[in-house]
Amino acid sequence: METSIMRLPSFGHKNPKVPLEAYRPPSYLVPALKERKTRMSKPKTRSGCKTCKIRRVKCDEGKPECARCLKFGVTCDGYNEPKKAKTEKLAIAPRRELAINEQSLPALQLQPDLTFHLRGNAEDTQYFRFFRDEIAYDLSGGFFDEPIWNQMILQSCHEAPCIQKIALSIAGLARALKANDFKEERDPHVEYALQAYEKSLQHFRVFVASNGSHDPRMLLMAGLLIYCFECLQGNMENAIQQIKSMMSVFKSMRQMKQLNYDHLRRKGSFEDELVSEIARLDGQLLGRVYDPDIGNTTIIGIKHGHVWDPFTIPEVFTDIRTARRFLEHIQHLSRPDVVHDEKAQPLPVPTQGPDTSRGEEHIRIMRACLANWWSSFKPIYDFTCTPEGDDNFVPAATLRIIALATSLILQTNMTMDSRQATENWADEALLSMERGSDLFGSTAREILDLSRKVVGHRRFVKGFVFATGIMSPLWIVLITAYKRELVVDIVELFKEMVPRREGYWNSVPLLETAKEVLAKRDAEGW
User: Fold this and answer.
1) Closest C-alpha to 394, from 72, 138, 60
2) pLDDT for 41-84, tens place per residue?
3) Do residues 323 and 399 make contact, with C-beta atoms less than 8 angstroms apart?
4) Is residue 78 part of a domain?
5) How many Cβ atoms from other residues are within 10 Å of residue 410's Cβ?
6) Do residues 119 and 164 make contact, with C-beta atoms less than 8 angstroms apart?
7) What is the C-alpha separation between 164 and 331, in angstroms, rounded?
8) Phi, psi of 20 (to 5 degrees)
9) Max mean pLDDT range (75-84, 101-110, 141-150, 465-474)
10) Which of 50, 161, 239, 510 meets the CB 3.0–4.6 Å disulfide criterion with 203?
11) Phi/psi at 367 (nearest 5 deg)?
């Protein structure tokens, strides 16, 4: 057990460099090429405008725009400086070192020395470095063993201009958010981001309209990044509509009516990793505070398959990635639409106790599953609480907070009313501190204390994070709290994490809501 835990990733720096397997070339992104027609050989142009060089045609070198570009109605990108440095090669993999368990790596990998020939100027290079070294880690929320952010998106930037430009636009908005939280009227980072975003849409239209076959998985990749960009701008409904549209087109290209997904049956392929991130987003959107689609089982269009298949929680988890997937599966089985589904099959888990309704029995089983999950995950969590494992404390503690919040909901039998909370041995087994007079209050207190440690940790991200983190659990505590000191602590936690965003969840409006709840309860009496 000790050996497997010591192989956990150790993030010595913010965005580490991952040792990767052989990779050449990224064929999953390369569309089938049409047979090229032979063309007359023409002399190379070395002193023309950038556009004519790319098109490999002769340029008359007119200024500010050459006559050939004007004739064909294309944008003339101007001329290079007389003395231009050689094209810079950027390492596509994160630069900083990382010790990682090689057995846990997914199938799709990069070479550590794979270089990235950036199609752009020095400003683009600067923003790409920022995306590679900072934002990729931020988007992962600390779960950097998930390859979608630290490998696959960077691979896509290497091959697809539309993905590259969307990534650069996200980098621009993220820099503005970190620098001044969008408070400047004409922020240069925001202006760069909007320009890069407009270019990305142009590239994407060309990609979609291109002749021949193209990889439909690119639609999912673009959808994820466009969602991130729109979220950073505060355009939540537009972000949701964009990802829904991308999913609809993807299913049409795949000729499928429904996209089936299961947290526990992923094979680690490029498409599997993309769908996993979108499924996590779907679950996040289903928990929106003001949900216009309430009652739906999916927002984006994903159907969870194999829900009622038997599953066995490992005796001991050897990595955070696997533990996260099992917790997500338990969370899905704990959703109200699953718990109270009349067509649902009984879970293949033996239970003991008095005769109960199907819903009550299901909830009791889920509480036991959470206790088993925590027993298997505890060795990893304990290791991250040591100096040797401290680099992984934030993702490990985040999973524990989510598990405790799920337990809090189950304790109320899905009513979200703390007055209807019941006690169970499984819920008490989740606690690491000595319980107080009531189990519900002890669980809420442990969520807040652990959240305070996460927010104060050196690796806690106060920018934009794609995945759900600790905001949703804090919201659950807020709406179920029956003691003033709990709400006061939540207000202070939201203050400390501003301007953090976790996809849909934004710390700024949550802080204002928490203040309003506190003021209202003070006026009405506790």
Assistant:
1) 138
2) 444 546 788 888 777 788 888 887 888 887 777 778 787 765 44
3) yes
4) no
5) 25
6) yes
7) 34
8) -125, 160
9) 465-474
10) 161
11) -65, -40
CA 194 to chain centre: 22
Task: Report pLDDT for 31.
Answer: 35
pLDDT of residue 353: 39
Please state the domain count of the chain: 1
- Whether residue 292 lies inside any domain: the answer is no
Task: Identify residue 220 by its one-letter amino acid code.
Answer: L
In a domain, 276, yes or no: no
* 139 domain-assigned: no
Segment holding 100, helix H or strand E: none
Task: List all residues 6 or more positions away from 445 whose beta carbon is below 8 Å from its beta carbon.
Answer: 433, 436, 486
Listed in sequence order, the DSSP H helices in 215-269 are: 217-233, 236-253
Would you say 170 and 229 are in contact if contact means Cβ atoms under 8 Å apart?
A: yes
Asked if the bond preceding 473 is cis, omega within 30° of 0, the reply is no
The answer to whether residues 89 and 116 touch, using CB atoms and an 8 Å cutoff, is: yes
pLDDT digits (tens, 9 = 90+) for 303-340: 876 666 778 899 999 999 999 999 998 988 887 766 66
Q: Domain range spanning residue 421?
A: 307-524
Looking at residue 418, its amino acid is S
